[in-house]
Amino acid sequence: MTYKELSEQIFRKKSYLCVGLDTDPHKLPSHLLNEKDPVFAFNRAIIDATADLAVAYKPNIAFYEAQGPRGWESLQRTLEYIPADCFTIADAKRGDIGNTSSLYARTFFDPEAAGLNFDSVTVAPYMGNDSVTPFLAYEGKWVILLALTSNSGSADFQRQPVGEQELFEIVIQTAQTWAGPDRLMFVVGATQADELSRIRELAPDNFLLVPGVGAQGGSLAEVSRRGLTTAGGLLVNASRSILYASSGTDFAEQARAEAQLLQKEMAQYLSE
Amino acid sequence: MTYKELSEQIFRKKSYLCVGLDTDPHKLPSHLLNEKDPVFAFNRAIIDATADLAVAYKPNIAFYEAQGPRGWESLQRTLEYIPADCFTIADAKRGDIGNTSSLYARTFFDPEAAGLNFDSVTVAPYMGNDSVTPFLAYEGKWVILLALTSNSGSADFQRQPVGEQELFEIVIQTAQTWAGPDRLMFVVGATQADELSRIRELAPDNFLLVPGVGAQGGSLAEVSRRGLTTAGGLLVNASRSILYASSGTDFAEQARAEAQLLQKEMAQYLSE
C-alpha cells in the first residue's frame, strides 16, 4: 500500500485505528477452543467485526512464534484474511547484519518464502544502516523503525543525551537519510505524548505508529493533537482493549464497540 | 548450562568455538536435497563433524523463519540433536515491551511452547530494561545482549557519544545492573577488536559472543589476546567459513577441517 493510498483510507474510513492482533491462545473465549485453528477463528471474527473501522492490522509476531510451527500457520491464515484495503504490519522488531536482515525481510515480504506478504515490518535500529536497508529492497514495502517506545525501559537508552539531543532523535534524523516518508514510519509510544511535538518537527511527513493507547494508558486526544498531519500521519494501535473487551460469546461484538469508540473519537480529530 | 560448566567445557575441549548454523537451503550440497528435511540433514552432519571441536552452536533464526512452519520444524530437530555438552544460542535479536518479550522468552526457553529449549537468546537492547529482563525470568537461561556489533552500521548508533563514553559502553554498564555474568553475555563483533580491551575492562567477567571471524574478516588472534579471561570468557563464532567449506559430498569433512584450524589456534591461545 502506498503513502497516498494509506492516507486516502484514513479519510475514507475516518479512522487511523490499527488493531493489534496480540492473540493469546490462553485468553480465547472457550467456545472457540473446538475450532481447528482457534487463534485464526478468533482473529477472523475480530477482523470481520472491525474491518470497516480500522485502517491497519498489526499481528504481534511473538504471540504466533510462541506456538511453534502451528502459530506460523495461524499467522498465514490471518494475514490472508485481512482485507486488501487494510495496511498490514508484522510487529516483529527484527534487525541483524545485512545478509540476515535480508532473510527477515524475505520472511515477511516474500510470499514464496514463509507464505507471508505483509506491507511493513517493525525494525529495531540498534545495528544501524545495513540492518535496516535490506527491508527496503522490497519495492513498495515499509520499514517501521523503533524511535521512542511506550515502555518504561525506553528511558534507558533511547533517551540518552547525545550532544544537544537524545538518542531517539538521532535515530529519527539518521533514518531519514535511508528512506523517504513513503517507505519509512517510526514507532512512538502514546505514553510519550510530551515528546510527540518534537518528533513531529523532526519527521513532519512520516507516519507514526503509536501503540500504548488503552491498556498502557496513553491519551488518544494528546497523541492526535500533536501527531496528526494533513495526510493523516498516524496509525494508533489498540490491542488488548479491543481483543479482550469480552471473554464470552459476544467478544467480537464487544471488540467492535471498543473499536467504534476509538474510531468516533478519531473521526472528530480528523475533522478538526 | 552454568557459567562454571561452560568454562569447564572450554578447557576440556581446548576450544571456544561457536558454530553458527546459518543454514541456507539454497546452499545445501545437492545430494542432500532428496532428504525429507534437507536443512536438518545438513545440520546433523555439521554437528557430527564438529561436536568435539565446538563448545556452542548458534542457529541463526532468520534462516529457519524464512522457511515458514517447516523451518521451525528443522530448527526443533536441530536443537534436539545438539549434544548436551554444547551451549546453545538462539540468534534471534529479539526485544519488545515486557509482555511481548515474555512470549519471545517462552518461544526459545519453554519446550512446551514452541518445542525449543535453548540455553540463551540474543537480545537487542534498544527498548531497555523491561524488554530484556523477561528473558532472565527463566532460571538458568542466558541473555546475550547486543553491545558492539560486527557490521558497518554499528557506527550509526552504537558509537554515538554519550558524555565521555559511547552508547555501547552505556549499554554494557547498564545491563550489568540487571544480571550478573552468570546470566548475561555481550555480543562484540570481531571486526571491533580495537574496542575489545575497553569492553573487557567494562565487563571483566562476562562472556563475549564474538561473530565476525572468517567471512566478515575479524582476527582470531586479536580477539583472543584482548578478550580471553581465566574462565575462557569468549565464544568465537564462525558460520559460513565452516558450513560452506565445500559444496560437495565432502562438505562435513571440509567443515571439520575448517573447525579444526580454528580449534587448534584457540588451544594455543588458551595455553598461553
Question: Could you explain how this protein is built, in words?
Answer:
Two copies of one chain form a homodimer. Chain A is an alpha/beta fold and 272 residues long. Helices cover 43% and strands 17% of the residues of chain A. Chain A has 13 helices and ten strands. An eight-stranded parallel barrel of chain A has the order 1-2-3-4-5-8-9-10, surrounded by five helices. In chain A, helix 2 packs parallel to helix 4, helix 10 runs parallel beside helix 11 and helix 11 (220-227) runs parallel beside helix 13 (251-271). The radius of gyration of chain A is 18 Å and the shape is globular. The first copy, chain A, starts with a helix and ends with a helix. Chains A and B meet through helix 3, helix 4, strand 3, helix 5 and helix 7 of A and helix 3, helix 4, strand 3, helix 5 and helix 7 of B. Chains A, B: One of its GO terms (molecular function) is orotidine-5'-phosphate decarboxylase activity.
Offer a concise description of the structure.
The structure is a homodimer of 272-residue chains. Chain A is α/β, with parallel strands linked by helices. Chain A has helices at 3-13, 38-50, 61-65, 69-81, 98-109, 111-114, 129-132, 154-157, 167-175, 193-202, 220-227, 240-243, 251-271, and strands at residues 17-21, 56-59, 87-94, 120-123, 142-148, 161-162, 165-166, 184-188, 208-210, 234-238.
